[in-house]
Design a protein that fits this description.
973 residues; alpha/beta; Rossmann fold; Trna Endonuclease, Chain: A, domain 1; 4 domains; 7-stranded parallel beta sheet; 36 helices; ATP binding; Helicase_Restrict-Modif_Enz
Length: 973
């Protein structure tokens, strides 16, 4: 997309993207965004971004992904531009005046077109997935087609690797038998992030029946739409290449291919299947061009550009094909591009200038990604010997023939391999389990000058440096950058699973692994290739940016590293998620720019010991005498024969809706406007799009509305650890009785007057999301069911004792941990940020003679030790107390809180849930509750320090802070 103008775009598009982001922040915070969005979009955005859902998921969109989704939806759905020029004029006439208007008027910008500038490794594919769902569901449920949405999609990848990644994302990874497992697809694995429950069947049906591989486009019959996945070579009419993309004018061999589709003299040259395939080549473009509407997602879109030869500017074949597909579609052709490097470079040396694509709507750059901890922190390994020795860093040649590696190249490889071996040992020692198994296998990536050099690199590593043949995988291609299909099938299985296996340790490639090589464990890159093209350099860095250490227990240490490297300009305290680039002289200018921008740290010495690699991260096991201090968490297993004491509660305990007039609500479902309650809606068509706040679903009748509510209330997603969630069965009784209870509540109590939901379809008022009616119903019923569960008779219950010692190892920071006597582990951790209260409380427990045993409960490891409570928004969630403490007669669950948090609404609700749970525990037989009376203590900061200073024991502090029903229901502090 090079711009042949004197001025070019320069960084104006980035300024434009920042302006859009500012506007979106304002309209989102004010509520204007959601008010103007379609009902489907409202459902999706609430599901993706509202706290009620994000806090119960272990995976969510990060800020960059969220901004990309919001900016695109705002630009397309709220503003509804018909071209890039329109979008500029709607956002800022001042910025538009800075652009060359004749350039924006080009045909390729004459339709809705948006570009996501997102750093490599920050999850562009997830943004693509979300936008596809948004487009598809809106197109399916839109009553009057607006042309803004489509059920047809074309996903364009830059090469085989990204193409395979997209197939994995949509169809699932390929098994050994060649069948793709949909359960392993992104949509299925992360369904709790991407798809509201009510739409899952619809979306799954679409994906599973409408995905078309590149060889099937125009030939496979699909259902309600199309998801065509291809690499750009299909659109360019060529076989896959890596280094170049010649047009027929530039490369006569391309023209020969177009004229003679079958090569004479080959064994399969006159096979009928070959003839058919060659004849049909190009028919894919015609097929796509005939579709009424389509959304094109270009992954790694920097490959779309213009070429300039002899003063003539020409579009590459890829863009020409897109121009052909977009003909006669107008605003029904929507193009969404993704790239970490959406720019072209004009000039050279000091006059080199980046010209960014004009349609960039979000800029989430490498700086944001690194400082936010979303990708690895980059360090440049500048060796003292490299800095002082004048060595040749190019391969040795006899004329044009490569005859060996230079001494400079060997030195770089040795430096990288030395770093790799140190990382490998320490990472394995830290993470391997008792069976010696670990998933932390650091890898080294070597980028070669060309395919003639890579065999010499492999030979040097295996023959001179002692690596085995299985330790090194070499990714070679022919002169056109292609790999034979059978060889590629073998390589890709080995390549894309490198994170899971110890071998291979080193990956040697030229450019095949430039994009889409999305593994996490690349820790060292040795760039032997001497090119200085900025895009290529950034792409090389991108191969190693994805995080390797994602576990919550390592986040604090990684944050400290970023502070040391990027703010204080100090050496890192550890090498967790550090990407080491072995210096190449040709890259010095590029690296210097990154260092000035605060993106790269410098390393001049190899770490000499374990602490230099892992910092203060340690692995802590059980003490030899851990049984003396072991505690357990009682889990009550209900017998099938047990019944709830009260089958159904009284309606008298349910609160009415006091803040809405019923007659006004009835009018709201008939008013016109941009919200979801338009006059044209009917029960059979439009009502299906409405949202019920706590569970996004399509309700087509009052009976269905009731059944959906039952599902919401009786099965709620609960976060049980940082890593996983579960569907918690909130109620296991006759659900017909619950339906009756809800119906009675709605008819007689909800509005403090009689209400007939079936008369004139009055039930529709329950779906008005802005009123919070459904939220209120769910919240009230959830509280009732929670109370019912706590009326269970547990005298004869079966109890499982979950001993804390079943978790044999913890990982923690040594500098923020204590060597304690009265606990099962060798050390106990406390927070590095504002952890003084917990630290001092543990010291007090350890020194107090009346404390027999205690433990700091870890949400990440002791996932069984939690209570369930109803949050202030009515959602069932999980709560982990800070400590469990045993004294001669008592077991205390303890929460330590800063004084400012004592009266937080959710803290108060946790108190109530703890007391309800402890009531059941104390009704158990003594042997099932460790022969102690269980209590809950909320120890405030002021209380602890004040009483300790006066000589109070831990037992006295806990008794003073112990909560009772009366104290919770009254005024506590």
């Amino acid at each position: 997309m090079s711009i042949s103008l004197n001025t070019g775009t320069r960084e104006i598009p980035l300024k434009f993207a920042r302006e859009i982001t500012g506007i979106v922040h304002r309209v989102w915070d004010s509520g204007e965004f959601l008010a103007k969005a379609t009902p489907i979009t409202q459902d999706l955005l609430r599901f993706w971004f509202s706290d009620a859902f994000t806090e119960t998921r272990h995976v969510n969109f990060h800020d960059g992904q969220r901004q990309a989704i919001l900016n695109t939806i705002y630009a397309h759905e709220i503003l509804r531009p018909e071209s890039v020029f329109d979008l500029y004029s709607m956002i800022s006439n001042e910025i538009l005046a800075e652009m060359d208007l004749s350039y924006l008027r080009k045909d390729k910008f004459s339709h809705p077109k948006y570009c996501m500038k997102m750093a490599t490794g920050t999850g562009k594919t997830w943004v693509m997935n979300a936008l596809l769902i948004w487009q598809y569901l809106n197109a399916r449920h839109e009553e009057k087609p607006s042309g803004c949405y489509s059920t047809n999609f074309l996903l364009v990848a830059p090469g085989l690797i990204v193409y395979e990644r997209l197939l994995d994302a949509y169809l699932g990874k390929q098994r050994e038998d060649g069948i793709r497992d949909f359960e392993a697809s992104d949509f299925k694995q992360y369904e709790k992030l991407f798809i509201p429950p009510a739409y899952r069947d619809e979306v799954y049906g679409f994906i599973q029946t409408c995905v078309v591989r590149k060889e099937e486009i125009g030939r496979k019959v699909t259902g309600s739409g199309l998801i065509a996945i291809t690499n750009w070579h299909l659109l360019a009419g060529e076989e896959e290449e890596v280094d170049s993309n010649p047009s027929p004018l530039e490369d006569p061999s391309v023209a020969v291919k177009e004229i003679f589709p079958v090569t004479p003299g080959t064994s399969a040259g006159h096979d009928l299947n070959t003839l058919d395939n060659k004849y049909l080549s190009g028919g894919e473009i015609e097929y796509l061009a005939k579709l009424e509407s389509i959304v094109v997602f270009n992954d790694e879109a920097h490959h779309i550009h213009e070429t300039k030869r002899a003063g003539i500017v020409s579009e590459v074949e890829w863009q020409k094909s897109l121009n052909k597909i977009s003909e006669n579609k107008g605003k029904k052709f929507i193009q969404i591009d993704f790239s970490a490097t959406p720019y072209d470079v004009a000039g050279s040396g000091q006059r080199r200038t980046k010209h960014y694509f004009p349609h960039i709507v979000v800029d989430f750059d490498l700086r944001n990604a690194i400082h936010g901890g979303l990708v690895k922190t980059i360090t440049l390994d500048r060796r003292k010997e490299i800095a002082t020795m004048e060595l040749d860093f190019r391969a040795m040649r006899d004329g044009n023939k490569v005859i060996g590696l230079s001494e400079g190249q060997k030195l770089m490889l040795r430096a990288g391999l030395t770093k790799l071996k140190i990382l490998e040992k320490e990472f394995t020692d830290l993470t391997q389990d008792k069976n010696g198994i670990t998933d932390k296998h650091p890898k080294m990536l070597v980028i070669c000058e060309d395919t003639a050099v890579s065999p010499y690199v492999t030979g040097f590593l295996t023959q001179a440096e002692g690596l085995g043949e299985e330790d090194v995988v070499q990714i070679d291609s022919d002169k056109k950058g292609s790999i034979p299909a059978k060889e590629w099938d073998t390589i890709k299985q080995r390549l894309f699973n490198v994170d899971k296996h110890e071998k291979p340790k080193v990956i040697v490639s030229v450019l095949m692994l430039r994009e889409g090589f999305d593994v996490n464990n690349i820790c060292v890159i040795v760039p032997l290739r001497s090119t200085q093209a900025p895009i290529l350099l950034e792409q090389i860095l991108g191969r190693g940016l994805r995080l390797m250490w994602r576990e919550p227990e390592f986040q604090d240490a990684k944050e400290e590293n970023r502070t040391r490297l990027l703010k204080r300009k100090e050496a890192p305290s550890n090498y967790l998620d550090i990407l080491s680039i072995v210096e190449h002289p040709a890259f010095i200018e590029f690296y210097d720019d990154l260092i000035k921008e605060g993106l790269v740290g410098e390393i001049t010495e190899l770490p000499r010991d374990r602490e230099g690699i892992l910092g203060d991260i340690i692995k802590v096991g059980l003490k030899q005498n851990y049984k003396d201090y072991d505690l357990y968490w009682p889990v009550i297993i209900q017998e099938r024969e047990e019944f709830l004491k009260d089958v159904m509660p009284s309606l008298d305990n349910l609160k009415i809706m006091q803040w809405y007039n019923l007659d006004q609500l009835k009018l709201m479902v008939c008013e016109k406007g941009e919200t979801f309650y338009s006059e044209e809606m009917t029960v059979k068509t439009r009502f299906g799009d409405y949202k019920v706040t706590a569970e996004l679903f399509t309700a087509k009748s009052y009976n269905e509305f009731l059944s959906k509510l039952v599902k919401i209330i009786t099965s709620t997603v609960v976060k049980i650890t940082q890593r996983r969630t579960k569907d918690y069965p909130a109620m296991q009784i006759n659900q017909a009785s619950l339906v009756q209870l809800i119906d009675d509540f709605v008819r007689h109590n909800l509005f403090n007057q009689e209400f007939n939901p079936l008369e004139d379809n009055n039930w529709r008022v329950l779906l008005l999301s802005q009123t919070g009616i459904t939220e209120h119903i769910i919240k009230e019923l959830s509280k009732v069911l929670y109370e019912m569960q706590n009326t269970v008779d547990v005298q004869d219950a079966i109890v499982i004792k979950q001993y804390f010692s079943q978790v044999e190892q913890l990982k923690m920071r040594e500098n923020f941990s204590l060597d304690m006597v009265k606990t099962i582990y060798e050390r106990l951790p406390y927070p590095s940020n504002k952890g003084a209260l917990e630290k001092n409380f543990m010291l007090a427990c350890d020194h107090d003679g009346a404390v027999k045993a205690f433990l700091k409960i870890s949400e990440m490891y002791h996932d069984f030790a939690h209570l369930n409570y109803i949050r202030s928004d009515g959602i069932l969630s999980s709560y982990y107390p800070d400590f469990i403490i045993k004294t001669p007669k008592h077991i205390y669950l303890v929460e330590t809180k800063a004084q400012k948090d004592i009266k937080d609404e959710n803290v108060l609700l946790k108190k109530q849930s703890a007391l309800d749970w402890l009531k059941k525990i104390n009704e158990l037989k003594p042997d099932d509750r460790d022969d102690g009376n269980w209590s809950y203590a909320l120890v405030g900061e002021n209380t602890f320090y004040s009483m300790q200073s006066k000589g109070a024991s831990v037992g006295e502090i806990l008794e003073y802070s112990k909560l009772t029903k009366q104290r919770v229901e009254g005024t506590l502090f």
